[in-house]
Amino acid sequence: MKTVGELSLLVCLIIVCFNGRGWSQRLPRPQPQQSQVPCFFIFGDSLVDNGNNNGMLTLARANYRPYGIDFPQGTTGRFTNGRTFVDALAQLMGFTRYIPPYSRARGPELLRGVNYASGAAGIRDETGDNLGAHSSMNGQVANFANTVMQMRRLFRGDTNALSSYLNTCIYYCGLGSNDYLNNYFMPNFYTTSSDFTTKAYADALIQDYTRQLTQLHSLGARKVIVTAVGPIGCIPYQLARYHGNSSRCNENINKAILLFNSELRKLVDRFNGGQLQGAKFVYLDSYKSSNDLYQNGTANGFEVIDKGCCGVGRNNGQITCLPLQQPCADRRKYLFWDAFHPTELANVIFAQSAYQSQSYTYPVNIQQLATL
């Protein structure tokens, strides 16, 4: 039987033969090397979706210009002008090809990872229904289970070798934003705000998320990044609707989110403390990182922190980028690309800090997680 190291080398050789397009010459190219982990699996929403919603009947789609205006492959379904957070993170980990979306990942390509993220997705199944079709976290976990079944064939039915391989990969899970944006704080469409207090809702989300993450663990996930929900009370979409006096942001939303984030960090402690055997979870405090960037945007060259680079209405936040709309000329000066999503530069900054430092990661950074 081959060792995990030998399998990793074999996988790298297979990937060279079967992968599609790689990083563009317009992006910083990593030195030729093996990636720090053999594969990277991604679960999430529009912040990291790279095309899974393109074929769905939904308003949560970004497969039209100006989305992707700065991306080397053009418009792909990414909800920003260029790279997403996980694109930049994969590059930092040494991957020389983009992780493919589940909608088109096939054969040996599965061995380096798959992106299951879906715009409008949430921890709860009904979240995002106001926008149309999507794949919730439950659906994404089911899709991963299907991928594992396909991978068994690539390992010639050797479940022990496959399990050892999957144990070495990194898994990113970024859910929860839409459970607030497109559920709890949308009382005209959902009843959750009358069914739950903010504390009870956070607890209900954590209960569902615990089950979903436990299922991922049972399928082979060991090195897992879970992200806090960012301060969505400060995004252009909310700023376009909020008329508070004491704060620029809707602090009622932010306070509700902090309840969820607090419980998520406790969940990481429980998982790492023995609740899930062999688990190595990292809590990524995207609330703090986003808030720091929002408060100190000028230090990173951001001149506009409260408006989308493209969009319609107040703060360019009432409607997202329209097809063929002309965006702002200098995307590097904008923190937000549209009503909801960061620009490529903001994504790259987030990724670099999460990978290299422990300012926003607990108990280790992502570079350290890769070596565990």
Automatic annotation (TrEMBL):
Main location per the UniProt record: secreted
Keyword Endoplasmic reticulum recorded: no
Localization annotation: Secreted
Swiss-Prot/TrEMBL keywords: Hydrolase, Lipid degradation, Lipid metabolism, Secreted, Signal
A GO MF term: hydrolase activity, acting on ester bonds
Cellular-component GO terms for this entry: extracellular region
A family per Pfam: Lipase_GDSL
GO biological process: lipid catabolic process
Superkingdom of the organism of origin: Eukaryota
Signal peptide: 1-24
UniProt xrefs under InterPro entries: GDSL, GDSL_esterase/lipase, SGNH_hydro_sf, SGNH_plant_lipase-like
Family, as annotated: Belongs to the 'GDSL' lipolytic enzyme family.
Identification of the protein by name: GDSL esterase/lipase
The organism of origin for this protein: Gossypium davidsonii
Taxonomic placement: Eukaryota, Viridiplantae, Streptophyta, Embryophyta, Tracheophyta
